[in-house]
Amino acid sequence: MNDIQPHSSQPDTAAELKLADYLCFAVYSTNLAFGKVYRPLLDELGLTYTQFVTIIALWEEDDQTVGGLGEKLFLESNTLTPILKKLEAQGYLVRARDKANERQVRISLTENGRQLRERAFSVSLAKACGLGPAEFARLQKEIVTLRDNLLKSVRGE
């Protein structure tokens, strides 16, 4: 499998590949850069990035099951449960058994969790990326397509 970014000076052999030629490294290092942009906000909120995206998913759709939330965040329940426990201890959400199906746990934001939304928009990601609105939207769509294609590949589709 070839993991290099296509460009005109593509190396002829694997021995000539440099770290910067790997698409996976470009994505990985970009994720680290996103973390640095978000760090001041996350520190102020007392959240990790994963806790933050969990809250965002609940802003989008409150009162979700743990399973549904895990699917949306691409997290297994053994990873998600400690995150939810921490957010509950911080007063941002509540976990409760589903009345219709006791085997399921539902997650809902508290008022404190909903109020985080206003503070969270203090980071201008578009500005930090240096992209115009159309470029930003195009890149986001292309990255989602890349992610979805990679997941299909893993599932053998």
From TrEMBL:
Is the keyword Cell membrane in the record? no
Q: Which domain of life is it from?
A: Bacteria
UniProt xrefs under SUPFAM superfamilies: Winged helix' DNA-binding domain
Q: Which GO terms describe its biological process?
A: response to stress
- Residues forming the HTH marR-type domain are 20-156
Entry GO MF terms:
DNA binding; DNA-binding transcription factor activity
Q: What is this protein called?
A: Putative MarR family transcriptional regulator
- What is the species listed in this Swiss-Prot or TrEMBL entry? Metapseudomonas resinovorans NBRC 106553
